[in-house]
Amino acid sequence: MKLPASTKKPSPVRAVALLGLLTALCTVLRIVKVPIPNVQPVTDILMVVTLLLGMRWGLSLTVSTLVVSNLVLGFGLWTLPQIAAYMVCLLVLQMVVLVLPMVRRVLWLQMGLAGLLGYLYGFVVSLGMAIIGSLNGLGFWSYYISGLLFDTYHALGNLVFYPIVLLVLQQGLQRFNHG
Description:
Blueprint: H1 12-31, H2 42-53, H3 55-73, H4 79-99, H5 107-132, H6 137-146, H7 148-178
Helix pairs in contact: 1-3, 2-3, 2-4, 2-7, 3-4, 4-5, 5-6, 5-7
């Protein structure tokens, strides 16, 4: 599936409305718990929004989603590493697309990248928590390794949800751009 970059700039009112709707969607999906921890399509949504609408949209959605969802889930030392982790994921996504533009056209490459972003997210959150908690090198690796199972759930969830998220958001954003 080819992911065209959006060329039409929406009105400010439509843009705020879209950001609000996407934030609400991501917030609900972060809060709703499924039986498997860390399985939620938020990373996929951020990835698809970034690919379709650009980095500014992806970063805005990241910050708004984490701030709003953490109003319910609770703020803590983990909030800043979570924001940083998603920002790093989106920056890596942008770099990969710049180096390998074919990623925009090949679904299995997008899915593979979505899976890898699940691991990158966990690594950056662990690194951030190690810095905040002043863990030495050994403490960081212990913390990171103990979370690898959850990162694997996150990565596998991203693989499963990505085609669904892509289809839904492509259709919805196409209507947004033409409506």
